[in-house]
Structure prediction request, 345 residues.
Amino acid sequence: MSIEKLNSFLAPTYENFPKGRMISLVTLRTSLSELILRTEGTGEPMCREFVQAGSTGDSRRQVVQRLVMTKRKQVAPERRKGREHLRAYNLLYTIKKKEEILTCSLNTNAPCEMCIDCFLYGFAAGGGGAQKSRIWTEDAFSILTATDTLSDRTINAIFETGTMRDEKGNASTALNTSEYIKPGVHFLDVVTLKDVTADEFRYLTGNILLTGRYGAVSSRVGRMENQILGIFGGIAELPSSLELVQAIHDQFTTIGTPLEHPLDNGDLIDATKTVIASWTNRRGVSLQLSDEELAAVIADVDQHWSDAEREAFLRRLDQSYEPFRQVGESKKGKGKKKETAEAGS
Ligand SMILES: [Zn+2]
Prediction:
């Protein structure tokens, strides 16, 4: 029900032109296992950045190194999560490229320009078509410093037998050291959705809530939990992820709770809610959902992604782009709706 509370910041239907309606989600991302946020194989260290610890008084002059979860590291797994379901219901479209029929896929320069994912996260096609992304993320920063949140693990290569010794009894000498982010590390960031419809909001929020693994070698490590601590509506963006983290640092200092690993989830959520409670006073931000309204919106999203409703929900959202696809098709003469199993189901 209370998704209606967001109505003045939701688009009634998809349209090509932006109208400055913004919904922002304050997102807490907590690592639940070891996590590796760097580009595999490059030998680069984990992403981190020197920043001011806080934003007031002495903390402003104190420089700390925080971990950074880049935009790409957030959005790519979340897009893939949504696309798993689009694929399952045959809602990814095909395009014809040099006599080849390609199905919409990420990072292969072959966006179909017709699926839910293309319409929401955007694409830039070589053929001249383009759609701006309507989901804006920012680099997320860790609350604690890199020194507190990183650790090294030395791995001993294991033989086929599952032990450290080969058949002749010789110990494995192959050693490898890898840096990882500890479990229980918190990242905070602000995700902004621009000119989205109610169903698009549900799709994007569902992608964030349903994604549970991030980073390199995520099939082995990289479990993460996402929670939405605040939903805002307005005509301007919220303060940045960095400002949020700095304000939380100052809030911890004010209440005298030490900032050290492992940081209590509850303390952090309380501090975050205290900080964001004053954000509706900022220019351009006019609405914050109450805790009850926020819970109701999350329940609404869960309901739409449930086994019972997911397919109908995704098909309805897919259908909502139909008028815009036809324009594109006749103009560019490319893109053909993939024969789906719809007829047979
Ligand atoms: Zn697509």
Remarks:
- The longest helix spans residues 71-88.
- The chain has ten helices and 14 strands.
- The CA atoms of residues 38 and 46 lie 5 Å apart.
- The two ends are 31 Å apart (CA to CA).
